[in-house]
Amino acid sequence: MNGILTTAIGILLTTFLNTMCNALLKPLTDLVISTGYLDIETYSIMSTYCEDLTKSAEEGKLHDVIGRDKELESLMDIISRKGKGNPCVIGEAGVGKTALIEGLAYRISKGLVPELFKNKKIIKVNMVELIAGRSYSGGGPVGRMRSLFDKAKEDKNMILFIDEFHQIVNCGAAELFKMYLDRGEVSVIAATTTREYSFISKDPALERRFTNVLLSEPTRSETLQILKNLKPDMEKDKKIKISDEALSAAVELSGRYIKRRTYPDKAIDVTLSTLEMVIRKNEEGKNESKIEEITEREIREYLTLETGIPLREISPEEAKILKGINSRIKQDVVGQDEAVDETCEVILRSRVGLVSDGHPRGSFLFLGPHGVGKTYLAEAIGEEIGSIIRVDMAKYSEKKSKKSLVKSDISSYKSELVRKIIEKPYSVVLFDGIEKAHKSVINLLIEILDRGYILDSGGGKVDFSNSIIIITSSIGSEIVASAEENIPFDDLKKQVMDEAENILGNELIRRIDSDIVFQKVGIEHFNKLADILTANLEHELSSQGINLEIENDVKDYISKVDEDNKLGVRRLKKEIEKKIKMPIADLIVKGKLKRGSIIRCYICEEKIDFEIL
Fold first, then answer.
1. Is the pLDDT of residue 87 over 80?
2. Is 275:246 a contact under the CB 8 Å cutoff?
3. Whole-prediction pTM value?
4. Rg (Cα) of the chain, in Å, rounded?
């Protein structure tokens, strides 16, 4: 009995070991037989850092490429040459360089290529991982590449596709490439971005061994067709469908509101990200009713969350808020109704989408004396739309300022303008005190107003087409301050604008949507400002449980501190800060003023005094 049991156990163990060996070794054996990888080092490199795109296409994992027939023909023509038969595909990130090569692999797998290419196989090399990966036999990156090239040299049907090709210069492998390419022993398709091609062009001998294929950004119609091609894969194993309306919206809206990236990449990302957003909200129960098909509405919702640009439908609550913008701002900015009306009109027009593409949503030149509310109005508009980016033009008064702005090689420029506008494209951008800037910087503003963007140091677009540009200046201050009371305002405005044109130049002035000259603030306006500012202070203290009572004679006293109208609102704010806020703060710190206290503010012997009741 024991013998039979021992025999049975032996048979089972043998069967198990044979099964495990087959499971572990058969894939490796098949690979060795089918590809001829006869050494473990080459096998490790090929399996770790390479992908057979032709095989992936045969397995249905890749798609044909849309609208790139001309580029595919160029690729095959270059590869067919006896000398210099190595194409280098150059294009911006996201335009479809990899998709082009995958399209070639797809056509090879389907036999849709000339006879010369029907047995070819395209091997994609992950250059970044190959360089950074663990060394085999102490060879390092160059050793790994040598093993890879030796394999490609043996197999004449193998075409190596190397993305991020500029990395070969960075890791010092350029000479190895030249050696194999000179002999015509391997066939290579390289790919890199327009920006990073500069690394290759620094080595003319390496550059000469390739023929460039420039890949431009696909059109919107081509991008839409690409999305329709990818739609089945996007929807695979998902319970949500993507409507054709959503695909069209992804193309149109990503083109308009995501300027730093290219088609088709940005449209694909918007579609996939919207799909993930809807799936997540469905699972979390955040949708009122589960969405089964994505439409333009969901695409707009995602882009609103992603960019901060308001693209979703206007709700009744938001409509009510929008209608009240004008009156809210006029409560704080007094005596400048024309300026408030014009800027509020731009906000409303911008929110409903009635803006021209390729230019800022609105541009204003605010002119007038100090303290009349130019900066204050700009800040109020920024608060309404949720973001303001302020650039102090006094920092850019030297000749080198243009270089620091255009090339963005000064960190302050990146942090003050470029980085912020990339993070929040829907912003008020306030260029404060333009008369202090160098002429070359004014030319930069002309570029923003004219094209809607500038280029950063790397050649990337910094988009201003979703921003509201406000330029302030004290040009014309003396004209406004010394003007007689009975002079028609149109005549006064013409004098100020003539001076502004002489100083800033006609090229800037004629590109601005609205030129607004702020009027001199009269005593009646100062009275109203004093009421507003003291009321704000009373509200601040009431939130801390302290009741502040300010007598009318205090407001009259404050409103007369700047009778010559030299500093305006700034002077009033400073007076309230110094004469009222600071003494009250001191009483709170000393424990004399507590929650529930009542304090009266009045005039005594021509100065402000206090009484705790």
1. yes
2. no
3. 0.81
4. 35
